[in-house]
Specification:
By secondary structure, the protein is α/β, with parallel strands linked by helices. It has one domain: TIM Barrel, CATH 3.20.20.70. It has eleven helices and ten strands. The longest helix has 17 residues. The chain is globular and about 40 Å long. It starts with 13 loop residues before the first strand and ends with a helix.
Length: about 250
């Protein structure tokens, strides 16, 4: 089945606002403003983002506001905390049925390739991808090389491997990291074939550095960005959003 991505893209490109960091990194990422999901949702609404990424709990408890905002919901179906330092395993915590009930426009799932538990995550994703596609829902795959066997998670080989994994497993969009090398990213995008590639925003950095990075990312052939901290930790997130969108759709 050919999946229609028009509800979560614009002219084949996308800008997503990510807010799954509360589980993944803990409240250390937040201040008095951005600790409130409604503050994040307001940025997504006013900035006209292509989607907002929430875990199940926030999607349920702020459901009426999400629907009213008309920002497409991307429901993250698995996750983990940062507290355990062993081999990473992102456990499934929501289902495709949950996504449909919450009126999500796409689902997201993380696989840590190279982890001792990659087989379990791949098996879970396979079932999710089949069910989501049978319902017409696009699937975004977070693919991060991680674990004791991974020496450099943003090497040329590992970025391309992450992107290729998304293609081979049937994802519509791959969300991968950027290793600050345009040529490496070009190879990763090519390796993804017909699976679109969006880049994770990563840790908070200066606005100028982030905008330069965004320009390099888009010039490498990526289809967009999935940004969290660099936007909602910004002093003026809406002005920054305008600058990012200009780069993506230039």
């Amino acid at each position: 089945m050919k999946i229609n991505l028009n509800k979560i893209t614009t002219k084949g490109k996308a800008l997503y606002l990510a807010y799954d960091q509360g589980l993944e990194h803990g409240p250390i990422e937040f201040n008095d403003k951005n600790v409130d999901p409604l503050y994040i949702l307001n940025i997504a609404k006013k900035g006209k983002y292509n989607g907002i990424i929430f875990q199940k709990g926030i999607a349920e408890k702020y459901h009426s506001e999400i629907i009213k905002s008309k920002v497409p919901l991307i429901l993250k179906l698995n996750g983990k905390t940062k507290l355990f330092k062993g081999e990473p395993l992102s456990a499934q915590i929501a289902t495709v049925a949950d996504a449909i009930k919450l009126k999500a426009k796409a689902v997201g799932f993380t696989i840590y390739i190279g982890s001792k538990y990659e087989e379990q995550m791949i098996e879970e994703f396979s079932k999710i991808e089949q069910e989501a596609h049978s319902k017409g829902l696009p699937v975004i795959l977070w693919v991060y090389p991680r674990g004791k066997s991974v020496k450099n998670d943003t090497s040329k080989e590992n970025l391309a491997y992450a992107a290729r994994t998304a293609l081979e497993l049937g994802a519509d969009i791959a969300k991968i990291k950027y290793g600050n090398n345009k040529d490496d990213l070009k190879w990763a995008v090519k390796s993804a074939g017909r699976t679109k590639v969006v880049i994770a925003g990563g840790i908070k950095t200066s606005e100028n550095a982030f905008l330069k990075q965004s320009h390099d990312i888009m010039s490498s052939g990526a289809s967009g960005l999935a940004i969290g901290r660099n936007v909602w930790k910004s002093k003026n997130p809406l002005e920054l959003t305008k600058k990012i969108k200009k780069i993506i759709w230039s």
